C-alpha cells in the first residue's frame, strides 16, 4: 500500500490535527493555518533579504528539512509502538 497514506491515517487516528505532505507549498500553508486557528504572516522578499543573507536562508532551509525528516521518522516509530 501507499506508505504515506498509511502513515497519515495512523497519525490522524492517534490524534494529530492534520498531516502535512512535503513539499509544502504556500497554497497549502494558508488553509492549514486557518484550520488550526493560526495567523500566517507572509514575508516579502525585501524583509527576507534585510533580515538574513541568502546563505543563511539556505542553511535554515536545510536545517528545517533535516528536522522535518527526523520528526517524521520519530512519529512513525512512535505510531508503530503505540498501535
From TrEMBL:
**What InterPro entries has UniProt attached to this entry?**
CheY-like_superfamily, Sig_transdc_resp-reg_receiver
The UniProt record lists the Response regulatory domain at 1-37
**Entry-linked PROSITE patterns:** RESPONSE_REGULATORY
Q: Which example biological process does GO assign this protein? A: phosphorelay signal transduction system
- According to UniProt, the name of this protein is Response regulator
Record organism: Vibrio parahaemolyticus
